[in-house]
Amino acid sequence: MNILVTGANGFVGSALIPELLAEGHHVIALVRKKPEQRKGLEQVKWIVGDLLEAQNLPKLPPVDRAYYLVHGLKSDTSIFEYQESLAAVNFINWVRSYEPGIIYLGGLGDSSDALSPHLRSRHLTGAILGASGLPVIEFRASIILGEGSLSFEIIKALSERLPFRPDITLLSKPCQPLALPDLLTYLKDALTVDVEGHKIFEIGGPEVTTYGALLDLYAELAGLKRIRIKLPEVEARVLMKALDYSIPELSESGRKLTESLEHPTVVSNEEAKKSFPGVRLKPLRSSMEAARKNSKSQYASLWEKDFLKTLLSDKILTQSGLLSPELLKSLEKVTRLKDILSRK
Length: 344
Fold this sequence. Notes:
Blueprint: E1 2-6, H1 11-22, E2 26-31, E3 45-48, E4 65-68, H2 80-95, E5 101-107, H3 117-130, E6 136-141, E7 144-145, H4 150-161, E8 164-167, E9 174-175, E10 178-179, H5 180-189, E11 198-203, E12 209-210, H6 211-222, E13 227-230, H7 236-246, H8 251-258, H9 271-275, H10 284-294, H11 307-312, H12 315-320, H13 325-331, H14 337-341
Parallel strand pairs: 1-2, 1-4, 2-3, 4-5, 5-6, 6-11, 7-10, 8-13
Antiparallel strand pairs: 9-12
């Protein structure tokens, strides 16, 4: 098949392309910036363009299927949903003449809830693609466990960087993580599934867990001792501020994902199992361990570099009650708090 992959430089797209090539498909990859030539990807036809700029999109060769893996997590928050919608509309207009089947990766979440902007935009994008009249398979997934996944990297960074495990209500919401290899199998198998109109499949791993439990599991597998410390319940904006200080490398995108933590992301039907019997779901523990071993990212400790002094200088954090005397007293058990605060 001639297959178009949008978002080809992203986490999922870059993992999917080698799999498609191995199965003998011809891959056309849309990127904003052509990557350096990588071994094994010589057969890929790279085309440069931005779905937010329809007038500058290049001429598209004939395609049989098109993966829509574009996600604007790094775009400006104030116009995030607008940009997501615009990109989807421009994509449909760009590919329509070939009438390809579309395969889209979206997000789980009950549409009847007041969803976060991130999840709301995922569902809206699916609705726009589905309204095109083209055959659309929409996968809705929770956290993807794989090296390079933003959700996994946030779990890794918080576990390795903080000397304790935060305990807040937000981390008790249920989720259903899916291993990256299982996601790729779903995406590849979708090439052979014929649908009429817009078909939604909810996909997840074999176990339902919580975000807090994922932090505990990563720490256990990495051999990290992390005492659980209860944090005061505060406004979301305060948690976002703390996130900015804790993982500045990921905070821009992480903010959008964090806003979605209050919504359960759990599979509610078994349609995917019936339509994709070839997927053999990997257990949560082995999925997390594989992601941990394959991950090459490094997160230098901030805790020993006046981290707490920086937090205590922020009025939003100090006035919110998050950094309460009780919390600071608890932190003395896991770090050299007095030494840090006494530095000049």
